[in-house]
Design brief:
373 residues, mainly alpha, Glycerol uptake facilitator protein, two-stranded antiparallel ribbon, two-stranded antiparallel sheet, Aquaporin, transport
Amino acid sequence: MPSAGFTTRPVSMPRMSTDDTKVHVEAVIPPEKPALPELEPFTPPTKERLLWRIRNAIREPMAEFLGVAVFVIFGAGADAQVTLSTNPSVASVHKGEYISTNFGWGIGLAMAVWISGGISGGHVNPAITLALATWRGFPWRKVPVYIFAQVMGGVVGAGLVYSQYIHAIDIFEGGRGVRTLATAGFFSSFALDYLTAVSCFFSEFLGTAVLAFIIMAATDKNNAAPPSGLLPVVLFLTLLGLGAALGMQTGTSLAFSFNPARDFGPRLFLSMAGYGREVYTYRNQYWLWCPILAAILGAQAAVGVYDIFLYNPNEKESVSASSHPDIIKGRQSQTLTETASATKHDFADEDPHYFYASFTTYDIDYWHPDIPL
């Protein structure tokens, strides 16, 4: 019997032999759905409207700020622990290897996107923000605010890690107030001495390009995008792999970049924490043309290539009753027989609002007009 609330009428069926499975077919007419009452928009109390507006205005930048701060805490913290623990006066046992640093940055990126993804989009990278504004229509008016929040997140994240390890840094450097690039590399990238300027630029360009390209693929709903909520896992694996494959050369300690905010924000903090002008003058303003300019151009190139050759925003996902959970929600009371098949009756053309199925017994709870007859 059909579910309560439906009207039915029998459909004539061709004569079947006694050996065939008996199939009961009914045309189901969905009931009319009652109109939902209109809801008035929420209006906060008068005294709280100003605070409410301020909160809404800073919500997205704050998500970017906190995301980058957490990103740097995990990554720079892993860098510091692995390197500082090589000094026996700091730790009796070495705490980690190069892969530990890659895990730190990868987990930090995943946590950052989980924190900010549903609020601001989870850019946590000025190169990604600029690429989305150039190629995907992200509002340019938001770009300066996003980048400022991202850089400040890097400053705060580096400050928290520095506060955590300040005494170990003193021991490692040989005294309070002694600060060199040996520990500055925990927070920002400084290329290895044997690299040429072109090689430094290419290393950051390539790493950021690969990262941006995978982000575009993983967020493309018309491609093999991961299920909702699993994008941070994809980014964790991506950055873990990039660190293992391409991260060695642009870190005198262990810190690769591929993100201008994660490099420049901590560099700002270092200049205020006693490391001096060397963090800027290193290799003729390396900080500007390598971790910032190379990363921005790498992201632009990657998103451009993806959008020109692969991205199709006008393509629509195919919808079928068997794959889309919002189309049919039914209760199958008996196993479908192998001989059951869809049947289309003659009056289907007269009334398209019927759904036909030759299930043995199937109670239809919901009907969707997009199901092809």
